[in-house]
Amino acid sequence: MRDKLTDEELETIEAPNPDYIREVPQLYKDGLARVEAKEAAEKAKKKEEAAAEKEKMQQKIEQAVEAALATSGGSASKESTSAPSSAAPSGESASFDVDWGKASSRDITLFYPGTASIEWILGRNHGGKRAFSKGDPCIECHEEEIADIGQLIVSGESEKELEPNLIPNKRGSIPVTIDATHDAENVYLKFSWPNTEHTPAPFVDGGKMDPANQIKLAYMIATDEVEFADRAGCWGSCHADANTMPFAPEKDALANSELASRLDLNNGVTKYIKESRTKLELKGRRGKALGGWDKLKSAEEITASVQAKQLFDLVRVKSGDSAVEDGYILDERKMHGGQGGQAVATLTGDTWTVTIKRPLVSDKEGDVTLEAGKVYNFGFAIHDDYTSARYHHVSFGYRLALDNEEAHINVTKQ
């Protein structure tokens, strides 16, 4: 029925009716409180079980290191036992001399989003459009069903329009544990998640989109100066006309565009955010392509947005060499230019661990400085199983802060 209605008809039908305002019965409030208490207890129990399992894994790792040291006569290192991706910066180890016992820990589930872009979120096919537009965070409605959403999309069982290129048996979600801590100069983030069996992509020769990197992990940080970041994390940088997305422009259109002198379009349209465009096409009426890659603001406006921190600070680590790429997203995705950092990506047994060390303060263009007393928007993604482009698993938006127990990710002091 929805597909047969115009956008105007939908907006009229779905508009809130003040005549329907009713006081919420106390009986309902009491029942809700009991359900929330039960769910909180179940969550606490699962967290304890996960912590116990994590401790067992750590003991296995330490035993493996000790065995390797004994076999090699004491010349082996932790990195050398953490095959296959363990290249650490000179003089550093996977721990960076951090007491992870002082770090906070948070479990976050990533899910496979298919072609769901910010235009889709703000479009007619997303039932949560009104709540999102009102300011409700994605996790407000979806936190308890993240894994289910990913499975429905990756399997094609539902929302088939969100994934036209199915990868058989690909997992729909990834459970990730984030440990976060800081000292006077640096922030340390450790991401851990289970490895998966290889599921070849049938539309790629050899089945691997990025054979050199079994995994890539990227995270983004933004202030509230970026629209949508407070409720969707980095989702505002995902558009329907980006490379490999449904409305990606043809190569000839990119090559002949006057914007080719201002944007790097050699590999298609990369991520960008609304603050860099004069308009985003959301409705697609009369055959218009969704997105706004070709509605770029002037160079002066882009510069002003950089200075105002209307951007996503972007950090990415590749398992191939554990190198840190540090850039930002505004008019396009820039992978370099930031202050940089150090990272280690290791696969130990069946567990991937990516540890990143990065200074809290930076004067580099596109970097966001982390300060006490402030709260930042945070989102991250993992390309697992040799994937690239949009074939990743992503988080919803979360809030990150230094020594703030109310933040989703509380970066505690050493």
Would you write up a description of this structure?
The structure is a single chain. The longest helix has 47 residues. The chain has 9 helices and 13 strands. The protein is an alpha+beta fold and 414 residues long. About 5% of the residues have low confidence. It is 24% helix and 21% strand.
SSE pattern: HHEHHHHEEEHHHEEEEEEEEE
Radius of gyration: 22 Å
Strand content: 15-25%
Residue-averaged pLDDT, rounded? 89
Give the total of beta strands.
13
Task: Specify the helix fraction band.
Answer: 10-25%
The SS-based structural class is: alpha+beta
Shape by Cα distribution:
globular
**Biggest pleated-sheet summary:** 13 strands, mixed
- Poorly predicted tracts of residues: 74-93
Please give the alpha-carbon distance between the first and last residues: 56 Å
List the topology elements.
Blueprint: H1 7-14, H2 26-72, E1 104-111, H3 118-121, H4 129-134, H5 138-142, H6 146-155, E2 173-182, E3 186-194, E4 216-222, H7 229-232, H8 251-255, H9 299-307, E5 312-318, E6 324-329, E7 333-334, E8 342-348, E9 351-359, E10 375-383, E11 393-394, E12 398-402, E13 409-413
Parallel strand pairs: 2-13, 12-13
Antiparallel strand pairs: 1-2, 2-3, 3-9, 4-5, 4-10, 5-6, 6-7, 8-9, 10-11, 10-12
